[in-house]
# Entry
Amino acid sequence: MRIKVINPNTTASMTAKIGEAARSVAAPGTEIIAVNPENGPVSIEGHYDEAVSGMALLEEIYRGEAEGVDGYVIACFGDPGLLAAREVATGPVLGIAEAAMHAASFIATGFSVVTTLGRTKIIAEHLAHAYGMDHFCRAIRACELEVLALEDEGSDARRIITEECLRARDEDGSGAIVLGCGGMADLAKAIEADIGIPVIDGVTIATKMV
# Structure
């Protein structure tokens, strides 16, 4: 099986991290093809960035169809271009927000989303409603971190995200945390160990679902 994991922004270091996360859970014999477009925003931090990234993302889907790809993961928590991608692809296309929210609803009676910037909260709110997750999603929290801070080894990103996850656990009464950015894919296990409840990364969950 061949799964194409598409990071819709152009930051190659994030794509590499996302690819590693997907490969860590892929079934034996599954090929993970992690890519990002050559052109577009370096990070996706709002509706405008999603719109700009859309055509390049769909070009990756078209390319995957020509290459015989069996399924796709859109590795951005806004699930940009998801419905359009499903119109183009012959195999399954999973967005990491949809996959993560559904997985969280399977293992907890309520979950919180911990994302990057406050302006992205409205996107997650719209998606939670569209995916029928209103009953399960207890809060959507922003760390006020720029997405590219996740790529800076000298930043306090992990500490800030972990602290917000702890607040979500204690203040929201959530039984699981959904990480609201594909760039957080490498943090889930460590944060889960720190806070003692399931922490769900959509990249790995979506890869398993494909």
